[in-house]
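QA checklist item 7 of 12: single-chain prediction sanity check.
[x] sequence parsed
[x] length recorded as 361
[x] structure emitted
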Amino acid sequence: MDFFNPIKKAEVIREKLRKDGKYLISKIEGSKQEGGTRKVLDAYFRYKDYMDSEEWFHASEKEIWSPKFLGLVENLWSKPIQEVKELEFQNPSYSAGFRLSGDPRKFSKVFTIQLAGCDYDCNYCYVPKELNVANPKLGKYFSAEEIINHFLLAKENSKEPMNVIRISGGNPTIVPEIIIDIYNEIKKRQLSVYLWIDSNLSTPKYLEDLGSEIKNILKQKNVGVVGCFKGADEKDFAIITGAESEYYEKQFETAEWFLDCGTDFYVYLPALIYGNNVEEKLKAFIERLGKLNKNLPLRIEVLEIIDFPWAKLNMDRAEKLGRPLPKTDQRIVFNLWYNKLLPQFYTQEELDKYCCQVSLE
C-alpha cells in the first residue's frame, strides 16, 4: 500500500486554487453529491439543512438549550446509523445561535462554498475524487465579491432564514486567504452573517503565513472553525486519508494553532476505528486532546459515516487500494464515546452542555 506526502500535495493544489484574486469553486450540479437538485444554487453553490426535525423546530427555546436533544437515542442498536444521535449536527447552528442570537434555528440553513482541492484522499469522502484535485475544468473561479453576491441572491430567494456562510471543500485552509477575503466582504457590506470554516487540520503553515490578519478574524464573535481529526491514532489516520502516518501529528499542531488564536474551535471525529482495541484508542485520543485544552473533548462531535451514492464510489476505490472502512460497527464507537468514556472524564453537568457552551478558557 502506497502512502503520500500531504504537504507536497497541498503545495501543488494550492497553486491551482487561486488565480487573479479568485478561488476555484467546485461545480456541484451533476456531481452526484447534491441532496436533490433543489439544494443546488446556480450550479456552483448549495445549501445544507443542518436540522430537519419537526420536533426541534417546534420546541420552545428553553427545550432547545436543554439536554433533550443531546446524546444518543434509546434502542440505538436497532436504529439505522444516521438515527443514533439525537442531533446529527450541533454546529454551526448552535455555535452561531449561542454567540449571536440565542436561537440556533435562525442558523439552520447554511450557504456552502466548496473549494475544489484537498490534500487528503479520505476513504469515506462524499466528494468525487476528480473534484478534489483543483481541476479548473470541473469548477469556476469566483472572487469574494461574487461569492457574496450569490449568497445574497440565495438568501433573498429563501423561505427560511439563511444566515450562515460555510467555507468547505476540499480543504479551505490550503488557501486561507479566502477566509480573509470573504470576511472582509461581509464586513464591508455590514452583513449579519456567521462564518463557519471547515479544516482537515493537515498543516498550519498557510495560516501561519498570514500572520495577525487571519488571527484577528478567527477570534471574532461571528466566526467559528471546525477541525476534523482523521482517525484516533496514526495507523487509522493513514488508512483513512492515504497520507503517510507521520503527518497525523500535524493535526494536533494545527488544532493548537487555532486554540492559541482564541478561535471558537470545534472538532469532528468520524466514527471509523480499526482493530479490536477501540475503547483503548478512544480513551487515549480523549487524553491527548485534553492536553491541548482540558475541555476540548467536550467540543467533539463523533460523525456517522454513511455510504451515500457519491461516497460509495470513494469507499469502493479505497478498498481496492487496501484502505477499506473498518469492520467495527459505528454504534460501538458512539456508545463508548458518549455513554462510557466521556462520563469517566467529566461531570454530568458538563456533559449536559452543548459544544458551544463549553468554555475553552
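[x] summary fact logged: The chain has 14 helices and eleven strands.
[ ] second reviewer sign-off
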